[in-house]
Amino acid sequence: MVPEYSNPQGRELSVGVIGASGWADVAHLPALTKTPGLRLGAVATSRSESAKQTAEKWGIDRWYTDAADLASDPEVDLITVSVKAPLHRAVIEQIVSAHKPVLCEWPMGVSTAEAIQLAKVFAENHITAFVGLQAAANPVLTQTGRLIAEGRIGTVLSVTARASRASKEPVPASSAYTLDVRSGAGTLEILGGHTLSALFTALGSMPDSLASATGTAKLVHRSHVSADGGLIEATSPDVISGHLNIHPGLATVSFTDGDIDPGTEITIVGSAGRVTLRTIAEDELRLRQPQMADWSAQVTTKAGVETFTAPPTELPLAARNPSYLYRAIRDDITCGTALVPRADSAVTFHKILDKFGVTEQVT
Fold first, then answer.
1. Which of 14, 301, 290 has the alpha carbon at shortest distance from 138?
2. Per the database record, which ranges form the Gfo/Idh/MocA-like oxidoreductase N-terminal domain (predicted)?
């Protein structure tokens, strides 16, 4: 399911990672050590001590505290932006003058308006901008998309997608910002965006029109306990439901924060069969989110039932989908394919989530 690498340029692509701590340290950096045709070339963090320590940990000698310096390094071919969403715009504005391909973590901006601005910046600077919707490269989901395109389950009639994630109580200081709706990194954006990515990958296409998208978002859990024992008042919705046309059928989705047994399940019903996709349960609950999890598929037709999962890998779970994504980016850059969501797709995702995110207050 994962193709062998063939680089017509005959060399590895060097990746520089900005924000090379936290999520990047458990996902992007290990993924780059196991992705043929790519290598970790440089890292940048906001502090020289952490940047140097990260470089030493991963066996490289190029580290920076300035995003522009990393971007201008002639040894860097691809730039990954893995800072918190509210910092994306500032970092991107610092690196566009390098005119190198960029992988920007999802969400691309804190709002649709900012995402549109960033897409314009990328286009004006002739930059290929990939978006870190990791589920888009998961081999189980991409194979499902091929099966549906081949007509294995007939015409798609309906889709139901349910995604949930565990509570973060007590809330770590590094995650407190996600409870603020202004951060653009709450349940709607993170869980919602990655679930939609998984859904559209499995269907093999994006929706034809956004006009029919509707939804409701509610803030149920208003107060959260912080790591130091204080209280954090949330403003970002944590329970969301939505509906979307997927011609000729319909999709119903829900995203919930605070589930004690979280996971994602997508059921695609066709005129000649159905596909049920599930994230595989892990003891570490946060790894059940669609962008982090392994997936399983069950295809039911008149011919019988077929199940499949991703091929075995030595990578830790959090790095597997990023590795698949980097493989696809590698091929997009070196072979001219178009496997990975780009900035214009990110804008579409932001617009759909706007439709779902009409907030109702719970009293």
1. 290
2. 14-132
Residues listed for the chain:
363
What confidence tens digit (pLDDT) does each residue in 242-258 have?
A: 999 887 889 999 999 99
Residue the block writes with tokens 């600077």 = 125
Q: Supply the CATH classification number for the domain 135-317+344-358.
A: 3.30.360.10
pLDDT at 169 over 90: no
**13-134 CATH:** 3.40.50.720
Query: What does DSSP assign to residue 34?
Result: S
| CB 16, CB 73: distance < 8 Å | yes
Q: To 10 degrees, what angle do helices 139-149 and 187-203 make?
A: 50
pLDDT digit string, tens, across residues 279-314: 998 888 888 999 999 999 999 999 999 999 999 999
Per-residue model confidence as pLDDT tens digits over 218-232? 999 999 999 999 999
What type of residue sits at position 247? Answer: H
Q: How confident is the model at residue 164 (pLDDT cuts 50, 70, 90)?
A: very high
| Alpha helix stretches (DSSP H) within the chain | 23-26, 28-33, 48-57, 67-72, 88-95, 112-124, 139-149, 187-203, 317-335, 343-356
316/213 Cα distance (integer angstroms): 36
Domain ranges, ordered by start, for the chain? 13-134, 135-317+344-358
Helix (H, G, I), strand (E, B) or coil at 348: helix
Residues linked to residue 158 through DSSP beta bridges, in sequence order: 250, 269
pLDDT at 8 over 50: no
- Where in 220-348 does DSSP place strands (E)? 223-225, 231-233, 239-246, 249-257, 263-270, 273-279, 295-301, 304-309
| Residues near 310 by beta carbon (within 8 Å), at least 6 away in sequence | 1, 138, 139, 140, 294, 295, 320
Which amino acid is it at 177? Answer: Y
46 token code pair: 């906001």
Asked if 14 contacts 334 with a C-beta cutoff of 8 angstroms, the reply is: no
> Parallel, antiparallel, or unpaired for β 273-279 and 263-270?
antiparallel
Under a CB-based contact definition with an 8 Å cutoff, are residues 87 and 183 in contact?
no
Confidence of residue 358 (pLDDT cuts 50, 70, 90): confident
How far apart CA 38 and CA 180 sit, in angstroms, is 36
